[in-house]
Each structure stands twice: as C-alpha cells, then as structure tokens.
Amino acid sequence: MKILRRHRLSIAVILITLQATWQVVPAARGATIDWSAGSSADFVWGNGLNWAGGVPTVTGDAVFVSPIPNPGTLPNPNIVLLGAASVANSLNFQDRYTLTGGDLTLTSGGIRVDLAQTATIASQLTGGNGLSKTGGRDLEADERAEQLHWHYQHFEWLDCVE
C-alpha cells in the first residue's frame, strides 16, 4: 500500500493519459465518406467535390448512397470512373452503381451490397486482407479480381464479368 500511495500521482497521470487516448483513437480511425456527385461536371472518383468529406483514403469507408445523385444533367450518374491507385477502406453500395476504369485497393477488403441492388466493379480490384462481400445482393466483378481470395457471407452471389 505504501508503494501505491507514494506513486499515486504518477499512476493517476498514466490512467488519465490512457483514458484520453481511448477517447481520441476511435475518431481517428477513419470516416464514412458518402458519394455526392457534387462536382456537377463528372463522376470521377478522384474529384474531391464528388464526395461529402473528400476523396476516400485508406481509412475511409466509401458509401455509394441511394438514390443515385445527379446534381447536373450528366448521363449515367450510376457509373463512377476510377483513376490509377484509387483507395478506400471498404465499399458500401446502397444502389445500382458501376465502378469502371483504373484500379481500386481496399485496405479492409470489405464490400457490402444492399438488398435489391446489384453493384458492378469493372476495374482491377485488390485488397491486402482478401476481399469480403456481405449484404443481401449481387456483386459483379471484373475477371482481374478473380485471382483474389474472396470470403462470402449470407449466400450472396459473385459474378465475374469480362
């Protein structure tokens, strides 16, 4: 007990520091970033105006919202053009989107497709942790994603397209 009493200030500082760290770390993990098509000029992944919160990074979860936004009069608002080395932590498709061109790396490998929707990824798709598809509907992936290790949950379908 004497040792605890003697070092109670040091112990209190350590515990307060740990608690403060635990409060900050969840906020630093990453954000959910919604597709907004806000540029009104294009549907390019790398255009920060097309995202509510900036272009996704390795910690950002990209959400393709429903209904599909089209603030301008551009054709095919459901088709998003990827650039070289596009990244996100995960993808969440809430409507019928197609990702095409370029390549995409998912750090967590998570892809979710909501019920009654079909998402298409016609781009090279990679994930360091494999790729895991969840949700209630279909995902169509380019044949370049075929060699990846896929995890399935809830008996969904994965179709590889050319």
Structure characterization notes:
- By secondary structure, the protein is an alpha/beta fold.
- Helices cover 16% and strands 39% of the residues.
- It is built from two helices and eleven strands.
- It has helices spanning 2-6, 8-28, and strands at 32-35, 51-52, 61-64, 79-81, 86-93, 98-113, 118-126, 131-135, 138-142, 150-152, 158-161.
- Strands 1, 2, 3, 4, 5, 6, 7, 8, 9, 10 and 11 form an eleven-stranded mixed β-sheet that branches.
- The longest helix is centred in the first third of the chain and has 21 residues, at 8-28.
- Mean pLDDT is 80; it is low at 146-162.
Features:
single chain; alpha/beta; 11 strands; disordered C terminus; eleven-stranded mixed β-sheet; 162 residues; 2 helices; elongated
**N- to C-terminal separation?**
71 Å
User: Low-confidence segments, ≥5 residues, pLDDT <50?
Assistant: 146-162
* Secondary structure tally: strands: 11
Helical proportion?
Answer: 10-25%
Helices and strands, in N-to-C order? Answer: HHEEEEEEEEEEE
Query: What is the radius of gyration computed over CA atoms, rounded to a whole number of angstroms?
Result: 21 Å
- Biggest beta-sheet profile: 11 strands, mixed
What percent strand? Answer: 35-45%
**Number of helical segments?**
2
Average of pLDDT: 80
Overall geometry: elongated
Please state the structural category. Answer: alpha/beta
